[in-house]
Amino acid sequence: MNKIYPTYFEEIKRTANILNCLEYLRPALVKSNIMEDIEGSGSSDSDCGSFSGLLKLNDSTYKASGVAYMPHTNDPADAVVLSYENKEGKSLLFTMENADSTNWTKKFSVSKIPYDTIVLNAWAFSANTGKAYKLLGSQLVIK
Known about the structure:
mainly beta, Immunoglobulin-like, five-stranded antiparallel β-sheet, three-stranded antiparallel β-sheet
């Protein structure tokens, strides 16, 4: 599979939504930011890598890192998704990173996350199936 790094993101987004409404996309676009809604089955957390590091860069910026690959293969994940747990225990997507290798890093700001104490999780995402697989390990952020 080839990855596209769009220059004209808004145009591609609009076109993808139209194609999705016409049911031309397989799998369909993800419609939820709740990770459990797109969680893949049949793999344990350790089958897909780990969320092994979290480094505080300043008061609101952190750098997450780890290893992510598709279940039952050594292929890199198509993307790594970071989520935080809400008060109901659901994991809500807040940022993602295209994965070009099994090792990944992502800088992000916690300023838009509404809680003071945050449990972060990372997920390996497959563009072929539209499913996400939780990585081993969670990280705690206290704002």
